[in-house]
Amino acid sequence: MGRFVVDGLYLLMVSLLVICCQHQHKVFASKNFLGGSLSYEYYKYDKGFHTVRITAVTGWDLSNSPCGQPCVAGDIGKSTKDWRDYKIRSTGSATNFGEWHLEIKTLSGTIREGNITGAVNTMISGEVAYVSASQPRWMQEVAFFFLEVEDSQYVDVIFKGQSWTDLDMQDCMTYNSCHFYLQQKLRFGTRNDTGAPNNSPKMLYGAVNRIEPNQQSEIEITVMDDDGDLVVCKKADYVLISFPQIDSLSVDDNCVVTVDSSGFPEGSRGMVNVVIEDKPRSSITMGGKLYEKDGTSSLSQVQVQFLVEVAKALPPEIVAPTPCSRGLGNAPPISVNATDTLRIPLYARPNPNSQSSTTIVDFKVTILPTPTTRLVLDNSPTKSAIDNVWTSGLLFETKPPPDDKTESEFLLHVFARDSLGYDSEACRFQVRVLALVTTHAQNPCPPGSTGNLCQSAKDSKCHCENGGHCGESQTQKKEVCYCPLGFFGDDCSSADTDPRPKRPTFDDAAGIPNGGTILCEEFSDCIFNIHTIGRDPGQPPTLKEAPKSPELKIRFDATKPETSTSLAGNRFVTSAVIKTGPPGLFKLCVNSEDASRTRITATYCYHVKVVPKTMGSKVQFQTAFIPPTPPNGTEIPCPKASERCYLLAYTKTLPTGTCPKLVSENEAKAFVVTHTPAVDVKDACVAQIMLFNLKGLACVHVHSMPQQSSSSGEKDRRCYTVTPVDETASRICRSEDCNQPIGACLATPDIPSTQCVCPEHAANYLDVRCYQ
Known about the structure:
Blueprint: E1 3-7, E2 9-11, H1 14-21, E3 33-46, E4 49-61, H2 81-91, E5 99-106, E6 111-115, H3 117-123, E7 125-131, E8 138-150, E9 152-161, E10 180-186, E11 202-204, E12 208-211, E13 216-220, E14 222-224, E15 230-235, E16 250-251, E17 256-260, E18 269-279, E19 284-286, E20 289-291, E21 300-310, E22 317-318, E23 334-337, E24 341-349, E25 360-368, E26 376-377, E27 382-383, E28 390-397, E29 407-418, E30 427-434, E31 449-450, E32 455-456, E33 469-472, E34 479-482, E35 487-488, E36 494-495, E37 505-506, E38 517-521, E39 525-533, E40 542-548, E41 553-556, E42 560-561, E43 571-579, E44 584-593, E45 600-611, H4 613-616, E46 625-626, E47 635-639, E48 644-652, E49 662-664, E50 670-677, E51 684-692, E52 696-702, E53 717-725, H5 729-732, E54 744-748, E55 753-757
Parallel strand pairs: 1-8, 12-21, 23-30, 38-45, 47-53
Antiparallel strand pairs: 1-2, 3-4, 3-21, 4-8, 5-6, 5-9, 7-8, 9-10, 11-14, 13-17, 15-18, 16-17, 18-21, 19-20, 22-24, 24-28, 25-29, 26-28, 27-28, 29-30, 31-32, 33-34, 35-36, 37-39, 39-43, 40-44, 41-43, 42-43, 44-45, 46-48, 48-51, 49-52, 50-51, 52-53, 54-55
């Protein structure tokens, strides 16, 4: 991190000073810049120096971009650091991707300036956020670096260059200043309303925006403010733009840009330059200075620039019920608790005027800031039978905010891409992730104490039979018995009856329910148990592969009697092994056949979320938990009427042959009812985990395993997302016609919605309902 001290001259660290100056005699003037924005987030104050995180969202022509050559949609998410460094070395120019400058007004009132391009080139890290598929070909980069500056009245961070692409809709040649110029003003000082320094607004935008010929077009800039301030947009004045704006350009306070293309021929290009300010919603002080509500003074000021091009296009459309938002800068965000999974259904259709063979082939998403866990998109949009609409889904697996924050906010742009290469207008979301106050893990019970609450037997106010455990009631202030599977009643003394189904079927009592989401790592074997109930004693159902996504392969191990619970009836368990490919959201269906294997008696379908190993390796298949424990991150739809669901988790036994201590991290979400040696898995213990019907994450972990350090707790942890649902997937699918058994119904019970899964070998000649 560079420290920029202003005292007559900028004194940089020696290593950064050398980098800063070694190439500045060369200027690379390629016309590759297509737009940019800057924002900042305050990081810390230490011994007279402020540290801020500068984020730059920039657009570049693919002929000379930070993405590299070639640059394709598959590069989204790729780091741009290596290619940036290569371009500097190969061209001998430190300014291929712009110059960076600082202007600082010191506490004494002196103005100091300096070029920090070399230092920024060393520190900046970025990734590919978007790649277009149609002309003009361009990409968008989200990059950041940390800047440390001395205490001062204000700091201007300036990003500029000589490389705007050709412009036809405004006169820059007369002014001999077709360069780009972005300025961001930082003011320090503690706000009396938040108790912290200010953060600038953040924004997302499209670097290249098509506008129809001879008409007015509106372009929205998506903005948010972490401090909850009022965000106001306006046209940049001459101080911040050295040549005139487009004559027909207007910008309203809500960041909607209007451009009239009348008089401009097709192919004309123009640059839009907008200033975004944040103003307090009530009068506050910051650094001792008063900022009045609706006053003229802004807390900070940032810019966004982008290109408009007059061109006819037939872009696809994202349609209802996709919950797109408008005017995000001053609108309430979607709130979600940390560690929950936000599920956003997506619906899109080709432009009504495009050729009939046009299809929706993909959805793309851009997010700011970059989250710690990747978003997961359904890689295979499914065509609906109504209005030529394709459906898909976006999953955002949230993580807690940093330790010093109670929330994190994200901006999302989602685009639908059609088979012609056109992208839709952005569907916009603002998401606020709220920190949770969690119950810390309990210590092991002391000698003489039993149960999850480690209560003394003589002090317990409840008595439980058949292995039940006392625990605090979820609805009353008293202890109650939590019963293992197969028993019920106030003291767990009553046994369940044999369900005796009319035909073999699946069993939700201890397995992943129909419509659940299984999380797996890429290019690996993902193992979980499927529970079934047979009609006749000793005759288990036969499990067979049903329609699924072609990216998945599945096999079934031998079916065995279910011995881990006391459930009555002819119950069986089969380990299923999914062989995964690349990341994405996929579909998997399984058929149950009767003992004669002459007919299908039931079908279950699951969502399968495949994540990169860099994400899943921290939580999948680790030391204490062993297969067939349901994979970490699996989502369990739990009927509200049942109040609770169960899962079976398997752990390694200790060297003594006993079971390790398995602890719930929050007994309001999960309760370990039993943890005993397993009969069907060698050298293992099996736990019955009760998941209460409360939305959110339910976590358990093994308290200690031999030869593990104190830092290995995360490795011995399993968390499951519980989603309360009004109806089960099986009930939702009863009214869905998927031409069974050729097709199968996959439900998403928490939305609720359904889709038909058709055989992969017949996808080209079956319709959305799996009919010819």
